[in-house]
């Protein structure tokens, strides 16, 4: 995160317990406070990790107090598929900037938008990549989500879990406010718009070099 902070293309950051665990983070609060001591001018989303709504609320209010640029990630439901809308409404109308996460359906978008209306600035995070993983084109869903949010400028849509660089251009073309991007995707930005004939030649050259180094014989 600190390395990417130097990149002006990056307008904010998000994480979750799964990513933090994979990164070897053992102290959630210490990690968050270290990051927030440096990154003070861009939004950062930190997620609650409880499954019961009262504990989610307790954690959310602690996370919110970490800094003015903090958004609190609340899952759209708990593990029993119970809607978090009531908690989302309560937190948002108490001034907590909420990032509602793990959304995959337009019905969920509609319910969450209803909970956020009149509240603090907020994000609605639709996992377009996971929609695509099921064999469904996520663009129509994301386009409709943009339409649902258009009358409510304090609520911004996140295209979450992108799978390829193309998703960045798709999100931009439909007017999606934010797209999350892994380092692997960001590293492909320099080849955006590359001449395909040249790219074909470079691919052949790569195959030829790999073959030469392989020592294969027929």
Could you please describe the fold and organization of this structure?
The protein is an alpha/beta fold and 218 residues long. The chain has a single domain, classed as TIM Barrel (Alpha-Beta Barrel), CATH 3.20.20.70. It is built from 11 helices and 7 strands. Strands 1-2-3-4-5-6-7 form a 7-stranded parallel beta sheet, with helices on one face. The chain starts with a helix and ends with a helix. 27% of the residues are buried.
Task: Note the main attributes of this structure.
single chain; 218 residues; alpha/beta; TIM Barrel; 7-stranded parallel beta sheet; 11 helices; 7 strands; globular
Quick summary:
By secondary structure, this protein is α/β, with parallel strands linked by helices. The chain has helices at about 1-5, 15-20, 30-40, 55-65, 85-95, 105-115, 130-135, 140-150, 165-175, 185, 195-215; strands spanning about 15, 45, 70-75, 100-105, 120-125, 155-160, 180. A seven-stranded parallel beta sheet has the order 1-2-3-4-5-6-7, covered by helices on one side.
């Amino acid at each position: 995160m600190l390395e990417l902070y130097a990149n002006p293309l990056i307008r904010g950051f998000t994480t979750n317990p799964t990513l933090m665990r994979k990164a070897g983070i053992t102290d959630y609060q210490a990690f968050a406070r270290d990051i927030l001591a440096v990154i003070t001018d861009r939004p950062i989303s930190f997620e609650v990790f409880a499954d019961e709504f009262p504990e989610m609320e307790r954690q959310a209010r602690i996370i919110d107090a970490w800094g003015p640029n903090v958004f609190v990630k609340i899952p759209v439901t708990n593990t029993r598929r119970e809607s978090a809308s009531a908690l989302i409404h309560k937190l948002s109308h108490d001034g907590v900037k909420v990032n509602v996460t793990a959304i995959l359906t337009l019905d969920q978008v509609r319910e969450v938008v209803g909970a956020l209306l009149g509240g603090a600035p907020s994000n609605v995070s639709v996992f377009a990549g996971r929609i695509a993983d099921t064999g469904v084109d996520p663009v129509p869903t994301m386009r409709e989500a943009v339409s649902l949010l258009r009358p409510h400028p304090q609520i911004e849509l996140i295209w979450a879990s992108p799978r390829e660089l193309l998703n960045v251009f798709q999100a931009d073309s439909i007017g999606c406010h934010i797209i999350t991007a892994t380092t692997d995707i960001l590293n492909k930005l320099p080849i955006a718009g590359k001449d395909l004939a040249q790219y074909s030649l470079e691919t052949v050259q790569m195959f030829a070099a790999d073959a030469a180094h392989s020592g294969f014989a027929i």
